[in-house]
Amino acid sequence: MEQRDPSDYRIGWICALPLEFTAAVAVLDAVHPDLPHDENDTNAYRFGQVGQQNVIVAGLPSGVYGLTSAARVATNLRRSFPSVKYCLVVGIGGGAPILPKNDIRLGDVVVSHPIPGCGGVLQYDYGKLVNTGKFEQTGVLNKPPDIFLSAITKFKSAYPPPGKEIEEFVSRVLNSGSVDSKMFSRPSPESHCDRLFKESYEHFSGDETCYHCDLDMVVERPPRSSNQPEIHYGLIASANQVMKHGATRSRLSEERNILCFEMEAAGVMDQIPSLIIRGICDYSDSHKNKAWQHYAALVAAGYAKELLLQLGPPQTSKKRKNREDDTIETKDIFECLEALGGTNPTDDKNRIESSKDKPIGDSISWILNGQNFKQWLAIKDKPILRISGDPGKGKTMIMISLIDHMTEMFDRDTGSKIAISYFFCQATDSRLNNALAVVKGLLSQLISNPRYPSLVRYLKSEIDIRGKNYFEDPNAFYALERILLNVCADPQYNTFYFLVDALDECIGDLDRLLKLICSTCAKASRIRWLVTSRNRPEIEAQFEYAGLQLQISLEEHGEQINTTVEAYIHSKLQELCIKKRYRVDIQEQVGQLLREKAGGTFLWVHLACKELEKVYSYNAVATLNGLPSGLNGFYGEMLKYLDRSGYNNDVELCSKILSAMVAAFRPLSLQEMVTIAELPSEMNEIDVEVQVKSCGSFLTIHKRIVSFVHQSAKDFLDNNIGSRLIIPNGLGYQHQEIFTRSMRQLEKELRTDICSLKRLDFAVKDLKAEHRDVIDHL
Ligand SMILES: [Zn+2]
């Protein structure tokens, strides 16, 4: 027997029950020698071949069925054999006949196949169904991989029809002696007749067989001319418990057009793109018994074999190895990043760092040396560490320092099996304020980090199978969650750290993100999350409920925060003294006032020092005295100042800019600002920049992009005190205004052939800068 390399296997064959495993191995054309697998992997494996395809048959030795065990088989398989790209999930299931349209009989085969609006498998909660009578779909699952769907298409047009081939495989296996032929043969009509009872007729309780059940209650069906199995393509319903109630079965199959009920598919499809194949062994009602299970399993295996024979020849292992080892490179990473979309968190971090003051010295040593941080780092039972604090307490600066510290720590250890990735949420930017963006950002950072070269393949294989637009559809979030879990199962790493700043600023689908954080921890013990957020009860409640959280409250560590704020004041004061040539007594007074008024809030110090930069040294103390302590007081003062600063034209332009910024879903460029805020059209970028800078300290400019200095600044303008002045007619009105202005601008600018290309067949690559200039600011 030829020894093969693990990378030679790209198709998995997953079974839940030992009898399904036996049937699978029995139909293989050849069995290969065993291969070593991950030490924590408890699966039973058999390696073999059907036609030209190498397959790995995987199952649990204990034969526990259900979603969770199936999911475990898939996770193990994926971890030990990352080359496996697709799976067949082959075994038995309960039929759901609706006569005459779906005349499903025992020994037939049901194959998951997409119908409009569904990928072929419905995940539902049986418990809820029983309690409420309502069918509640609990998961959205992908359609089977194209490679199998096209094989099915080939299959359907085959002559003679596949049923005959399957029958032949089955009899060949039974004659070969590789299985117990008595057990796996088709049950005889005398002992175990194929009877479908009326849906409302319950089984005579206590009996193993239907010996005492009323034969008058059997549904009459036309006899078939042969025992050849029929193949049915359509929906399979997958739940965590067994369906054994005729009336419910009929109702659901009528309602949703379900052909089969089973308990494994959803667990596997979550992990690996799969096709589900079910041999029908009962009718999902109270009459179900085990008599048909072995035969049905063998028929399903026969179908799977026949399907594998339809697949084209696999790539030779040499070629594929080259692809995986050598050419997973810049091009692939680029392709994956393009498909993912979203922003690059590394750039976001750089931008935030350049707009904030550098963290001072060892401002986080009290966190690093604290009990909770150490426990989080070392022990698995509390995988979420949440740092909570009010606005302006320096959460983002702490996060940046922690990222730098952890990256450095892991980088220093060259043998480290740790991967780290981070994301900064920002409510004022629609590219950074929703759950999907967070997951995309975390993934894109992992796959593009040259320290983790192997991780990109999980995304690559997914895109190869499902296409580049995969992450644009409404199920993208679920797909990305699944991919994230796959990435985190990579055997080369033992811990994945995800750091997310400002969870409270994830305003789109925060709930989904919180659930994802909890569920990934529950599913994979190698995942840890470190998050920061304001004191928000719903975030706290979610993590507390899951029992996974360790918390560090900045309010409870007021002393440590105050020490760092003092250090910060000290460094800011040094700067001011040099720039503004403060006399010693002024320096002392300013320092004193900053310490008194800051109230342990970095942002307050930052903003106050910005104000101090604007005034001469003799005015510094008076200016500080005029600033109220507390952030909202501060913002209020800035707004009042704007209002009374005299130059009426200036005030009007500033409030126009501020109201545009409050309504906008993302930061605005200086150029856009003219249209969006309806500034005089003769203003150029420099004029706009000057104007933005005179809007108190609400806004900041980085690389010609205007954004809020802090989320709390926007909150202030958006809420009662601020909004009365800035958006007196309400936010709705403001949106309408922006819309109208944008439309007016488009009307003015848009015309046929706006780039003067003159031809329709102009290639994008030939587009020159001057062509693009015309549309850049639109
Ligand atoms: Zn019965």
From TrEMBL:
Signal peptide: none annotated. One of its GO terms (biological process) is nucleoside metabolic process. Gene3D superfamilies: Nucleoside phosphorylase domain (3.40.50.1580), P-loop containing nucleotide triphosphate hydrolases (3.40.50.300). Residues 363-534 form the Nephrocystin 3-like N-terminal domain. It holds the Pfam family NPHP3_N. The keyword Calcium does not apply. One of its GO terms (molecular function) is catalytic activity. The keyword Coiled coil does not apply. Keywords: Repeat. This is Nephrocystin 3-like N-terminal domain-containing protein. It comes from Arthrobotrys oligospora (strain ATCC 24927 / CBS 115.81 / DSM 1491).
